[in-house]
Amino acid sequence: MYALVTNNEITKFINHPKSLVIGDVRYPAKIFSVWSASELNAIGIYEVVFDDSNKKDEQWYINTNQSYVFADGVVTASYGTATAKAHADSLWTQDEINDGDAPEGTSPGDVKTRGLKTQLIRTLKSQVAGILSDTDWYITRNAEKSTEIPSAISTHRDAVRTKQAQMETAITNASDTPALETLYTYTKQEDGTVTKPLGELPVLES
After folding, report:
1. Are 17 and 29 in contact (CB under 8 A)?
2. In this predicted model, which residue has the larger pLDDT, 109 or 205?
3. Cα–Cα distance for residue pair 113/87, rounded to 1 Å
């Protein structure tokens, strides 16, 4: 991506090489591949330098739009300070209800917006349901035919539920959004394994 700079002001962005007119001269698209950076700069074309130092994971944060600045002969695209997404649910207040901002029938304390904790726990429950569904047929067969459930299956299903409870507790107890992000951040351990603090749901040994 390039920017056209005129009188120290960015006047146009060039997303891909193309023929363009600067002043009274039309330049072919090939200048972007054969000219040096200094030659392009001489006619006001600068390659945009992207600074992503403030950009954060969009699962946890809301990033600003990029802003573009020309300074010291460089065009830089950068982000402002990211805002952490709400980790807890937001609730309707009586004042908001009185002002008519809430849907009809809303009571104080009803959930207005689901926070990250609620969303993550819902996702976890869905994952657990999917894992357990793989062995539900053992439960159905036992109910219909009284066929004994293998101990390995019962152990596995119990382990899944136990880990689910531990994970939900960890999510619920997270104090803020960065704490939630940490739970899900994979890091390399001394033994070479890559793990996250939240851990993983058990996998049935084949």
Report:
1. yes
2. 109
3. 11
